[in-house]
């Protein structure tokens, strides 16, 4: 399983329902990310070792399972990228930490794109519950950048925060299209935008 | 059919084979873009009004049809974005024209993402023939930016060209995730990178 979609916690296994749910979420995280959102219910249940009947007792539909699986992965993905709460890091260091980590995540051979951007592109309906999760992830990342810049004198930190999120999206998309990002490109692009905004 | 996937020329219709091929490419361009690359051969043939036998006489597989359909759309998509050959435009104006046009393309209600980035994310195999087409499109865009900057004194125009392509990818991805790009964001981000590179 990819580091991007690895759940943040091991399954509890203390209750059968929890275990079934966890196995379904694990299977969904793996198969949706590696093979795409059009993977069938049968393949999901086979990998989870769960009957379709059990799946439909826990999730209304495959779409709900996909959304729940993406939602569960958000804290882990953010933890891969965001710095720990270190008061010694400057606003610039806080931001660049994300792009340094992003370059490491992208360089992993199992990387298939940002799971939230990718699911948003694959699912054509903007109202799909997984796309709602993707927007929340996106907003969390922008909110982190905005908070990181809150003690700078940047006149328009909301704009800079959106630009930095755009660099995250662009770097992950580029890595998929080209098969590689190119060393240092995400950090160099974020650095240029920080320089331009006067965040030294 | 979306403006993004509209073929650059009307079908000739002079020969039956050409017409069948054109109808298949039109159907593929529309269905793959609007519904995703997992659309079935039956739906493609039904929309094209062509038998499966006729399709397989012209294309080895659905994958080949998808690649041919993407390949056919590249000149039209580039024409939507790139400026005409106007010697009065400065390097900065040439580059910013792309992002001004990109914002118009993205604002079209039929926009579902850059067709090449999107297909690359949906098709999980890097060797898929459509992903080879997507990489060529990507390289063409980067080559345009590099050529546009050739008369500047930018010390590393290959880096700036890659950064500008990353902004294209990020803007199209962001527009899909958020349902909108945000007015002026692509132009503002490209402008900041040009300022940073000293391209006034």
Description:
Two copies of one chain form a homodimer. Chain A has 200 residues and is an all-alpha fold. Chain A has helices spanning 16-35, 41-48, 52-58, 62-81, 91-107, 115-122, 129-148, 157-178, 185-196. In chain A, helix 5 packs parallel to helix 8 and helix 8 runs antiparallel to helix 9 (185-196). Chain A is elongated and about 55 Å long. Chain A binds chain B through residues 34-36, 38, 112-113, 116-118, 120-122, 124, 126, 131, 134-135, 138, 159, 162-163, 165-174, 176-179, 182, 185, 188-189, 192-193, 195-197, and chain B through 34-36, 38, 112-113, 116-118, 120-122, 124, 126, 131, 134-135, 138, 159, 162-163, 165-174, 176-179, 182, 185, 188-189, 192-193, 195-197.
Number of strands of chain A: 0
Shape of chain A: elongated
Number of separate helices of chain A: 9
Mean pLDDT of chain A: 92
Low-confidence stretches of chain A: none
Give the topology string of chain A: H per helix, E per strand: HHHHHHHHH
Structural class of chain A: mainly alpha
Helical content of chain A, roughly? 55-70%
Biggest sheet character of chain A: none
- Regarding quaternary structure, what we see is homodimer
Radius of gyration over C-alpha positions of chain A, nearest whole angstrom: 18 Å
Into which percentage range does the β-strand content of chain A fall? under 5%
Q: Which chain pair shows the most residues in contact? A: A-B, 44 and 44 residues
Cα-to-Cα separation, first versus last residue of chain A? 38 Å
